[in-house]
TrEMBL record, chain A:
Gene3D superfamilies per UniProt: 1.20.1280.50
Stated name of the protein: F-box domain-containing protein
UniProt-listed Pfam families: F-box, FBD
Annotated ranges, domain F-box: 53-89
Top-level taxon in the UniProt lineage: Eukaryota
UniProtKB/TrEMBL annotation, chain B:
Pfam families in the record: Skp1, Skp1_POZ
SUPFAM superfamilies in the cross-refs: POZ domain, Skp1 dimerisation domain-like
Sequence ranges assigned to domain SKP1 component POZ in this UniProt record: 15-82
The protein's role, per its UniProt record: Involved in ubiquitination and subsequent proteasomal degradation of target proteins. Together with CUL1, RBX1 and a F-box protein, it forms a SCF E3 ubiquitin ligase complex. The functional specificity of this complex depends on the type of F-box protein. In the SCF complex, it serves as an adapter that links the F-box protein to CUL1.
Entries under PANTHER family matching the protein: SKP1 (PTHR11165)
The protein's name: SKP1-like protein
SMART domains: Skp1
Subunit structure of this chain's protein: Part of a SCF (SKP1-cullin-F-box) protein ligase complex.
Family membership noted in the UniProt record: Belongs to the SKP1 family.
Domain SKP1 component dimerisation: 131-174
């Protein structure tokens, strides 16, 4: 009994740590800059009195990697030269945030321990990403490129390495690139993906919604779809969108698994209304459709579209539409 | 936001919990503070489950892996943490600003060699906010610094065989570009 309890506790603890790491990943960029110049100063004060005293080695590897998880990948890798104990540590950090702003470097990633993978930037033809079977959470923001068709295939292959991902965030641009390779034969299916988020301007390009739907088709078990629309100047918000008019061949997840849909940055435009209408019609087990309204001054006639949305046909009888007015784009 | 009344100001709660450190010092802390230490909370909950009748808080909780010095610092940090949270219950932004300000001031009184014992204590107590805070503190102290600086800061000596370090430096050359002056 006792042993069983300990095992359960250990499992719960691991799960808690996993969640905490996600939370930390979210908060990471905000606060790391602010503190700690003072500890450096204290260090100077201290070095004279107490030279060469080892102040770190009493920590176990798990805590050293925890410290490394707050560093950029560059700083983290450079600690491998401190001493032989430090040499392998950086590769054990379960979190990797890789920003590849140019084609200056070629990367090869072989880190099976990785659980959280955040990639932003350009993908080179020679970049190598080994399978990442333990990655459960990923953020992918691929940069655009001119020779789009080959590039799209490359991006699909890249995504395919995240075969067991559970929660994923993609930039709309990434989805659009993938859309160009929609006839790629080996499109991966994300069997475990339960939460998918898209960030960016979904109405800037005609086919962005088409791209989102294409990805929904690759995620048969998706439960939560989150669209975070950010308004871009020149978005085609006021014109009808041909990609919304085509009949909706319903992705598998829509009819069987999707329970939550969030749309953040709702402006009350015709095409947005149409999108919500189609989702409500297609999603048969949807429980919550949450719409967070973008507070641009244009939206004076709020009650009208509240009402309009509430009138839409819902395929799921248990579906609630929730409004939130507090979003400032 | 509306259930504020259910979580009264933590500093005003009256229940006390007694903690005993490895160097036999005894700390009496408010329950709200002690409950931030998940290890203590676990112990406390288990005790209560095993002994439903003991409604009074006479429990003494031993902490065989924590010394009094880091515990005192962690209690101070925790109290302030709860206080800032309570003062800004409905303004997250304000809370973060206050917290940041407090943490910056806090670190001015922390020596690098103290960070290790604080990290170990926070880890043992399973006090997540403090653990992350101190680990982040160490991380930002070595951020963008040369290997030589970091070795000196940590008090480490290279134990690589001749030639080995040069090889590694070559392999990871990209990670040393543009570091700060020491």
């Amino acid at each position: 009994m006792k042993r069983q309890r300990i095992e359960t506790e250990a499992r719960e603890r691991r799960e808690r740590q996993r969640i905490e790491r996600v939370e930390r990943a979210e908060g990471r960029n905000v606060s790391s800059e602010t503190c700690l110049s003072s500890v450096r100063q204290n260090a100077h004060a201290q070095t004279n009195a107490d030279d060469n005293k080892d102040i770190i080695s009493s920590l176990p590897d798990s805590l050293l990697t925890h410290i490394l998880s707050f560093l950029s990948i560059r700083d983290s890798v450079s600690t491998s030269i401190l001493s032989s104990r430090w040499r392998p540590l950086w590769a054990l950090v379960p979190f990797l945030n890789l920003n590849q702003p140019s084609s200056k470097y070629i990367f090869k990633i072989h880190t099976p321990a990785l659980e959280y993978f955040h990639f932003s930037g350009y993908l080179n033809g020679d970049d190598v990403l080994e399978n990442l079977p333990n990655v459960v959470e990923s953020v992918i923001q691929i940069e655009d490129c001119d020779s789009i068709n080959d590039y799209a295939k490359r991006v699909w292959d890249f995504m395919g390495k995240l075969c067991n991902v559970i929660s994923m965030e993609l930039s709309i641009v990434t989805a659009q690139i993938l859309c160009h390779g929609s006839n790629h034969e080996d499109r991966p299916t994300f069997h475990y993906l339960s939460s998918l988020k898209f960030c960016g301007s979904i109405w800037f390009e005609w086919y962005a919604w088409h791209a989102v739907r294409l990805l929904l088709c690759q995620a048969p078990k998706l439960q939560k779809l989150n669209i975070e629309h950010s308004f871009l100047l020149g978005s085609n918000l006021n014109k009808p969108n041909p990609f919304l008019e085509e009949p909706l061949d319903v992705p598998e997840c829509m009819s069987s698994h999707l329970t939550t849909c969030l749309y953040r940055g709702f402006g009350g435009y015709e095409i947005e209304m149409e999108l919500v209408r189609q989702i409500l019609r297609a999603a048969r087990v949807l429980q919550t459709m949450k719409i967070t309204i973008c507070s641009i001054p244009k939206l004076k006639n709020r009650p009208r579209f509240h009402k309009g949305l509430s009138k839409f046909h819902r395929s799921s009888q248990n579906c609630q539409i929730v409004f939130d007015n507090g979003y400032f784009a | 936001m509306s259930n504020q009344s259910e979580s009264p100001n933590p500093t005003s709660s009256s229940n006390k919990i007694t903690l005993k450190t490895s160097d036999n010092e005894v700390f009496e802390v408010e329950e709200a503070v002690a409950m931030k230490f998940c290890t203590v909370k676990q112990y406390f909950d288990d005790e209560n489950n095993n002994n439903v009748t003991s409604g009074t808080s006479t429990t003494l909780i031993p902490l065989p892996n924590v010394e009094s010095h880091p515990l005192a610092i962690l209690i101070t940090y925790c109290k302030k943490h709860l206080e800032i949270k309570a003062n800004n219950a409905d303004n997250k932004k304000e809370m973060e600003i206050d917290m940041e300000h407090y943490e910056r001031e806090f670190l001015k009184n922390v020596m690098p060699q103290e960070l290790t014992e604080l990290i170990l204590a926070a880890n043992y107590l399973n006090f997540k906010e403090a653990l992350d805070f101190f680990c982040r503190a160490v991380a930002s102290a070595i951020q963008n610094k040369s290997v030589e600086y970091v070795r000196k800061f940590f008090g480490l000596e290279s134990d690589f065989k001749p030639g080995e370090e040069e090889k590694l430096r070559e392999e990871f050359a990209w990670s040393f570009e543009g570091v700060d002056e020491d």
